[in-house]
Amino acid sequence: MNALEYIKLAFRALQTNKVRSILTMLGIIIGVSSVILLISIGTGLQEYVTTQFQSLGANTIFIMPGKMDLKNMRSTGVAMMTVSKLEITDVEDIQRASSLIAFASPAVAGAGIITYRGKTVSTEMAGVWENYFQIMNFTPVNGDLIQQNDVERSRKVIVLGDKPATDLFGDTDPVGKYLDVGGVRYLVKGRLAPKGSGGAMGANIDDHAFIPYTTALRQFNQTKPYMIAVKTVSQSDVEQASNDITRVLLRRLKSDDFTVMKQTDLLNTITQFLEVITIALGGIAAISLLVGGIGIMNIMLVSVTERTREIGLRKSVGATPRDILMQFLIESIILSLLGGIIGITIGTLGSLAMNVMIKTYVSAWSVLLASGFSALIGIIFGVAPAYRASRLDPIEALRYE
């Protein structure tokens, strides 16, 4: 018998028991669709984070208090706000020390309760210099940004991120309105264009509000910056600029007192973390593929038992053990492949449907992995039943009741 005859024979056998065939494929369908769906969520998350980091600029450097190990995601310091040994003079020293630095800005952070006409929102607030917005590539959709004279005169002006602006004003232009921040009256100077997640300022940059650095020192009762943000002239200058910054700070501080973090380092660390999560999700979903494979083996073993007389009859008219082996093995492979195809379709459609709520991305490698694994399942779990069928004695098989 040639391969085409084996396939035709396998399809006829599967069509004879359609319900059983569909139920047998169900484990593979669920497994393949789960693998594709979960990997698409993980991959989509990686793509989203990468896009957001790139929007902030790859030539950005953050100087944080305490020693932080990005590779192991741990910090030897306590809360950054309490252990910071950074000074405002460090910003000036850094700017003077390297011609590769285009902008540098200190930042003071604090939680803010903002109230406007009975509406109240809780958001992260940061006190910054005027050039902080250039460092982070922030642009206003309404109004203006904090200026140098706002910082010099400690003016009570505020620039709202997209989220607090939307929560308080909806689609209305907030510029020129007065807000209450912790009992202090602030004039809304501008509203930032939405930016998304990423960077060192937190999980969602849009959920922030910015005030002049000098104003923030009094508002949050701080004396030192909790972070210094730096932007180099070009991306190629980041490494050398980081070395220059480290050299300058080591004149006054110990190596454990600060960490120089490049935006690219943060991206690589988070990407590696997300890759591990994606693989773990795929691995968890792959367990259902193994369950589906065991289901195929069980059903094929039952099929061999039910078709014992048929096997004996085929052998008695000249079918070789190889013919019987190939017949049952191809049946199990077909079940796996059909289940894989249906699973890929369901997983892809499910991923597209979820795109409405969260960003997902179906990668070619996840489809190849799932389909290849499903075919392998058919071969591995189909061998035992097929081998058992091929070893049946034709005389004993014909006598089987």
Query: What is the total domain count?
Result: 2
Low-confidence stretches: 73-82, 198-202
**Biggest β-sheet description:** 6 strands, mixed, barrel
**What integer is the average pLDDT?**
81
How many β-strand runs? 12
Element order, helices and strands?
A: HHEEEHHEEHEHEHEEEHEHEHHHHH
Share of helical residues: 55-70%
Query: What would the principal axes of the Cα set say about the shape?
Result: elongated
Number of helices: 14
Structural class: alpha+beta
CA gyration radius, whole angstroms:
32 Å
Sequence of strands across the biggest β-sheet? 4-5-10-7-9-8
Q: What is the first-to-last residue Cα distance?
A: 28 Å
Quote the beta fraction: 15-25%
Write structural notes for this entry.
There is one protein chain. The protein has 401 residues and is an alpha+beta fold. It has two domains: 3-51 and 280-399, no CATH class; 86-252, no CATH class. It has helices spanning 3-16, 18-56, 80-83, 88-97, 132-135, 148-152, 162-169, 213-219, 238-249, 263-306, 308-316, 321-354, 364-390, 394-399, and strands at 60-65, 68-69, 74-75, 101-116, 119-128, 140-143, 157-160, 178-181, 184-192, 208-212, 227-232, 258-262. The chain is elongated.
List the helices and strands and how they pair.
Layout: H1 3-16, H2 18-56, E1 60-65, E2 68-69, E3 74-75, H3 80-83, H4 88-97, E4 101-116, E5 119-128, H5 132-135, E6 140-143, H6 148-152, E7 157-160, H7 162-169, E8 178-181, E9 184-192, E10 208-212, H8 213-219, E11 227-232, H9 238-249, E12 258-262, H10 263-306, H11 308-316, H12 321-354, H13 364-390, H14 394-399
Parallel strand pairs: 5-10, 7-9
Antiparallel strand pairs: 1-11, 1-12, 2-3, 4-5, 4-8, 4-11, 6-9, 7-10, 8-9
